[in-house]
Design a protein that fits this description.
Order of helices and strands: HHEEHHEHHEHEHHEHEHEHHHHHHHHHH
Radius of gyration: 26 Å
Number of helices: 21
Strand content: 5-15%
Structural class: alpha/beta
Number of strands: 8
């Protein structure tokens, strides 16, 4: 009955929206949604994909007003991806739950169900981190990997892996109490506990759990009282064999304003870094996104995006979403459409016709070595480092295959080229001198 009423209301809303939206907008964003239910003042709609849901969020106020006209009621709009299993629309009555039941309900609701190990694209830069997280999820209470400390730049998949651990444990061990929290929220809750004199409630919440997942632990730096509290929480969990997983933008030793006793504890388990994805991994990520959106995309579009957006996964997916949106208006996905969609995001190398010879010449001049040096078998760092950078540029700027690059640089094996490209990609992710050199060399290539 609820779904029947929802369908009738949705049809009336669609009739009204025909006067408010263009035909292409209505057909692209509104009509693909399916009404699921109308219950207790909540109108539940199903969206076909994450991309669609993210885009259609901007129309929620309009849909709300239209439904108000159609039903003479003010309804709350909720949009989900796919068709979820039937669940109560209203919030659970946590007042009548036991403390542990209420805590579990809150804990699990903070985990993103889409962040699973199956949905994570494994590549050379994150393979060890992925394996470590799987090990932690499968072997509860082990000391070898406790605590697990994941660090790396923004948008590289640390949060995804942390949620994947939580989701795995929740599904396989439903009686386990899993607590996921962002460090900033942890700090805010502690401040509230001080203000309201509710220390006991705060400590029960964070110390009565089987696994603590805390994101962006670097926000605890410089907060002396907070560090003292977290030190005791850490000890309580660790000494009782409970798992602790933390993410950070830097390794423990680099948290210079953190108490030494916390730094040593953060380092006493397994510390793993996540590097920026290499070219192959970026292409795999884009193909996964296309599959999730049920979209067919030509390989040259994948290669174009992966070549020009290399810093992190979040920017890579953002570029793909931009191309996908633009293609809906253009009517197709082609390389030309992708280039037009990303023209304000990607600054292509222009000017002279770029070739491997141009790249080798510019890199050689920049480092004051000869072209012959670049293609020789000399392995000293003054030669090998520029050679590896030139190989990397041939890969990302010209999309040359590994064997092609190997031939260009003295008939080297493709595995040597792969190692060079991965090494440069990792160094660039650290934002050091090599990253600055790379930007300057790109400018010279474009001149």
């Amino acid at each position: 009955m609820e779904q029947t009423e929802a369908k009738q209301v949705w049809q009336r809303a669609l009739d009204l929206l025909e006067d408010e939206l263009s035909e292409i907008c209505l057909n692209t964003w509104i009509k693909p949604m399916e009404p699921l239910s109308l219950s207790q003042g909540v109108f539940l709609l199903s969206s076909p994909s994450d991309f669609h849901k993210n885009w259609v969020d901007q129309y929620v106020p309009l849909i709300h007003n239209t439904l108000k006209v159609a039903t003479s009621r003010s309804l709350e709009i909720k949009i989900v991806v796919g068709r979820p299993a039937p669940i109560p629309i209203n919030e659970p009555d946590t007042q009548n739950m036991t403390g542990s039941e209420s805590l579990r309900m809150v804990n699990h609701s903070r985990l993103n169900p889409q962040y699973t190990f199956e949905a994570f694209v494994v590549g050379s830069g994150n393979r060890f981190a992925h394996a470590a997280c799987v090990a932690v999820a499968e072997k509860q209470g082990g000391r070898n990997f406790n605590p697990l400390f994941l660090y790396g730049g923004s948008g590289l998949g640390k949060t995804h892996l942390m949620h994947a651990i939580g989701n795995y444990v929740v599904n396989k061990y439903p009686d386990k109490k899993i607590l996921y929290v962002q460090c900033e929220q942890f700090v805010n809750e502690f401040i509230f506990a001080i203000k309201e004199n509710k220390y006991d409630d705060f400590r029960v919440k964070y110390r009565n759990t089987d696994m603590l997942l805390i994101d962006d632990i670097q926000f605890i730096e410089g907060k002396e009282q907070m560090q003292i509290e977290f030190f005791h929480t850490f000890n309580t969990l660790y000494e009782t064999g409970k798992n602790i997983v933390m993410t950070c933008d830097k390794p423990p030793q680099s948290l210079i304003s953190l108490e030494e006793r916390l730094r040593t504890r953060f380092s006493c388990g397994l510390t793993v870094d996540i590097q920026p994805p290499d070219f192959e991994t970026r292409v795999a990520i884009l193909k996964r996104r296309a599959q999730m959106n049920n979209t067919s995309v030509p390989d040259d579009v994948f290669n174009y995006i992966a070549t020009n957006v290399a810093s992190n996964i979040r920017e890579l997916e953002g570029a793909f979403n931009t191309v996908l949106c633009y293609s809906l208006l253009a009517g197709s996905i082609t390389l030309e459409v992708a280039q037009e969609a990303l023209k304000d995001i990607i600054q292509p190398i222009a000017g002279k016709k770029v070739s491997s010879a141009v790249i080798v010449d510019v890199v050689s001049r920049y480092y004051n070595i000869t072209v012959e040096d670049m293609k020789s078998n000399r392995r000293n760092k003054d030669i090998s480092n520029p050679r590896q950078l030139a190989m990397y540029l041939c890969r990302v700027l010209l999309n040359m295959t590994l064997p092609q690059i190997g031939t260009e640089f003295g008939n080297r094996d493709h595995t040597t080229v792969m190692h060079a490209c991965n090494k440069v990609s990792e160094e660039i992710g650290r934002k050091g001198k090599l990253a600055r050199d790379l930007e300057e060399i790109k400018k010279r290539i474009a001149e």
